[in-house]
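Sequence of MFS transporter (Paractinoplanes tereljensis).
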Amino acid sequence: MPPSSPPRLALPVACYVVLLVSALQTLVVPVVTNIQADLGVSATSASWVVTANLLAAAVLTPILGRLGDLRGRRPVMLGVLVVVLLGSILAATTSTLPLLLVARVMQAASFGLFPLAIGVLREELPPQRLTGAMAIVSGMLAVGAGIGLTVTGLVMQHGGDYHRLFWLATGLTVVGLAGVLGLPRRAAVATGRIDWIGGGLLGLGLVLLLMPLEEGNSWGWGSVRVIGCLIAAVVVLTGFVLAERRISDPLVSTRMLTHRPLVIANVAGLFLGFSMFAIFLAVSYFVQTPPALTGYGFGSTVLAASVVYLLPGSIAGIVTAPLGGRLVGRFGPKNTLVIAALVAFAGFGLLVFLHTATWQIIVGAFAVNTAVMFGYAAMPALLIANVSPAETGIANSVNSISRSVGMSLGTAFVVTMATRNLIPGAPVALPRESQYVTVFAVGAILALAAATLVALALPKNKPTHLSTLEVEEEEIFGAAGLEVPADLVAKENAARA
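Predicted 3D structure, token representation.
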């Protein structure tokens, strides 16, 4: 780094834009039912406000991270923030679902700010400050989620227009733009090209897959539209795999789809994403259900749903992240991943049988979110043990995609269950209690299956002997879908030798 460069802005700007990523992600979740009522659409249609955002993020995040390497991180961050700004303005001014979905896809570009922000820190900060700075920035993901939930609850505590949330997002994005403008210009750090073909095929295939899963109740599960979309999804995703084999810089390396330890790691990543959003949406919907009409739920306001029931899960991310690092350092990534799956099993299992008191919901959700954080801590070390040092970047990128796809699947599953087996005669569409019990039961079954799969199918591992800070550093690179530094890879591989 040239001595004349001003690194002072790097950390606060990186913290702010990552906080913005997480806040934009959580702002909308507690008000999906408000959006449904305001736009006069079905619950499945309204849920695409979340699903479209996550699907776009699955494709855009690795592409934007790669674009930052090729074009420079500062200009790409500015471009991303402009797109997010325009998306926020569109969402704040439209009252039609199609335009709102376009706006949410534009806002999904914000997910790319996390790997870009980590890249900025690597460019601007000296090595002795880098690990601590990255830990602070990574913590902003959980802090931003908590702030987003709290702000949503406060803005909507007396009801009112959900558009105010998007105007708030507009203002927050303007502040982010001003901060990034203050960063120094740096040259690009890589050569190559973007896999636009792979990104397009992956995005189209995922939409074709998830659309019938969410709309199956209204279209009919045996309808031509459902079957046609599923067949088209298989065709497009097959084309995606074939295309990736022929592209020199693929979005997804096909080796990551065939090597057994990597397949299992990505299935585990899929489960982590599924668990995060399944518990997030299920709890949000469940606690806002009026018990006078259904015999279950708490009739919570948006404020109570956000702060009382959802916020503790975000706090779990802050509190338990260091513990996950210690588990990986002492017991190794495989055993930590098994522990994570069993904790998720306990959380979902609790909610299957106990969901009539506030503390039960909070404890169950806290356990699942803790499991997700343990899994995030274990995943990079697990990947490092099974790829060459040069492949850690693409391995983390593929795992990041699998987590985003899992989030989308979790959203689709909860919406599907919440829009079938409805209570007859209710003034609004409300599912029976058994539908939520099924969501929690499926989460528990998948968690137990994940624990069994990891325990039996992955080779034995040794403790990494990395410090908690080093494990957290690996976790940050993994969450961002970036290449893990060579010194960490070498140290971990030496410990296993």
